[in-house]
Specification:
The structure holds two protein chains of two kinds.
Chain A lengths: L12 H14 L12 H8 L3 H13 L3 E4 L3 E4 L3 H26 L4 H21 L1
Antiparallel strand pairs in A: 1-2
Helix pairs in contact in A: 1-3, 1-4, 2-3
Chain B lengths: L2 E12 L2 E12 L3 E5 L6 H8 L7 E6 L2 E2 L4 H7 E4 L11 H9 L7 H11 L13 H13 L5 E5 L7 H16 L3 E5 L3 H7 L2 E6 L2 E7 H7 E8 L12 E8 L2 E7 L3 H8 L4 E7 L3 H10 L21 E2 L6
Parallel strand pairs in B: 3-8, 3-9, 6-7, 7-8, 12-15
Antiparallel strand pairs in B: 1-2, 1-4, 4-5, 9-10, 11-13, 11-14, 12-13
Helix pairs in contact in B: 3-4, 4-5
The chains are: A mainly alpha, B alpha/beta.
Chain lengths: 131, 322
């Protein structure tokens, strides 16, 4: 999997790493038994502080998405896919909620919001097909 | 010993100009500490005093238990230092300058490590320094600074004026140094880079330490509010929390505030003249600019909850054009 970090997107960098691992597991690009890069490797690859990567990995271990394998590193747990799919919905729901509340506060009507969402969804799926 | 470097109430004056004013800062092992501040805020002065290249008027600094004032020579042999404008002997080749510097270094494997770094940075050993581009020169300076595995690497605006590729290599090197449990002291204007690599951020304003805090805690505790007013109210109503700076654009205010929560957001939304209030996570750049513009003072422990004691920053009239 390829990690991508944007320091200015408002989410803490460690949180971005946690999410990307979560989404990768939910979308099966990381499967149980897969090893994630070492702290050293990933921090170098992303050019982010190694303590930040270590923190993300700790968080993922607490959530039982990653577990240490003796001598080799951290691997994706068997329980991870289910957990990550749930987390993915939760995280996206939160984002959606904040966008929707912004839309409402900007005085858009429900119909207008619905049209916007539908329109964007269509655009996204046609983009995906053309790829 | 966990303290790698320390400033203790260091002051420095150049004639009438106060460059550093009772500046104190402690750097711990394995951390990347970033110095942020405007040009002329005192960052380079602080670094030079730490390395014994400048003498403080009062206060003292030390590196690994050695006094900067009297043991500068020893300090500079153990520390890696890339100045903001490295001067290298232009007539030497890349290989020669490594050999030359190794003569001053007590570490036996300096030259081997230097050659390894030169290879990693894809520099040609036979090229003369004067034939190198700015980015390549910077990489030579970095190699010279890192070849003895220093326990402290000091970088003074290392990437200013360099292209993104070289900047990235500098970042990767810093990350490597930190991953080995060594310490980096970095002065930089590249706030996005600092946000990637720093553990803690020290903001210097006119020679004084304005803030020293871990990036994590800063990001957790500082919020950005966007407040839109109605009824033509020109001034911002009282905002709970610790206001760092406030900026006006038309009827909308951008407020950088510490220790603000959702309950406080509800309070603000319930103020009669407030039509809209949102709370977001500011970028380090917003936080930095907030501290530079505001007058929030140095946080000394958890700020007081009582409203009368809250320091309120000066109002800055933002650009009113929309």
């Amino acid at each position: 999997m390829i990690f991508k970090i944007d320091p200015s997107n408002g989410l803490a960098i460690y949180e971005q790493i946690v999410r990307q691992v979560t989404f990768a597991v939910a979308g099966s690009s990381l499967i149980p038994g897969d090893l994630v890069p070492s702290v050293r490797e990933l921090s170098r690859e992303l050019a982010v502080n190694p303590n930040t990567v270590a923190r993300a990995y700790r968080e993922l271990q607490v959530q039982q998405i990653l577990e240490p394998v003796r001598g080799t590193g951290l691997e994706v747990t068997t329980a991870a896919p289910k957990r990550c799919r749930q987390d993915r919905i939760k995280l996206i729901r939160e984002r959606l909620r904040s966008v929707l509340s912004e839309a409402q506060q900007s005085q858009l009507s429900e119909t207008e919001i619905r049209e916007l969402v539908e329109g964007e969804l269509k655009k996204q799926s046609s983009k995906r097909k053309s790829r | 010993m966990n303290t790698v470097f320390q400033f203790n109430a260091v002051s420095k004056r150049y004639k009438d100009l106060v460059a550093l004013d009772e500046f104190s800062l402690t750097g711990e092992r394995g951390k990347v500490i970033a110095l942020l501040g405007e040009n002329g805020a005192g960052k380079t002065t602080a670094i030079k005093i730490l390395l014994g290249l400048l003498e403080a008027n009062s206060g003292d600094a030390s590196v690994l238990g050695m006094k900067s004032r009297t043991e500068g020579d020893r300090i500079r042999k153990l520390v890696g230092y890339v100045p903001d404008n490295p001067t290298l002997y232009e007539w030497m080749t890349v290989a020669e300058i490594g050999w030359f510097v190794s003569g001053f270094m007590p570490q036996f494997n300096y030259l081997n490590q230097y050659e390894e770094l030169i290879r990693r940075f894809q520099l040609s050993e036979r090229k003369k320094i004067k034939e190198l581009s700015r980015g390549m020169k910077a990489k030579v300076a970095l190699s010279l600074a890192m070849a003895h595995n220093p326990s402290l690497l000091v970088l003074d605006e290392p990437t200013s004026g360099l292209d993104p590729m070289v900047r990235r290599e500098f970042l990767e090197s810093m990350v490597d140094v930190a991953a080995e449990g060594r310490t980096v002291l970095l002065s930089s204007h590249q706030i996005l880079e600092v946000e990637r690599v720093a553990d803690s951020v020290a903001i210097i304003k006119q020679g004084k330490l304005e803030l020293f805090e871990s990036l994590e805690s800063l990001k957790q505790r500082v919020s950005e509010l966007t407040i839109t007013l109605k009824n033509g109210r020109p001034d911002l109503p009282h905002i709970p929390g610790w206001v760092i700076s406030q900026k006006k654009q038309g009827l909308t205010w951008q407020v950088i505030v510490r220790d603000f929560d959702f309950n406080m957001l509800e309070q603000v939304r319930n103020i009669a003249d407030v039509s809209h209030a949102e709370m977001g996570v500011p970028s380090l750049e917003d936080i930095f600019l907030g501290y530079m513009h505001g007058d929030a003072g140095l946080p000394t422990g958890p700020p007081s909850v009582s409203q009368s004691e809250q320091p309120v920053a000066d109002t800055i009239e933002g650009d009113t054009q929309l």
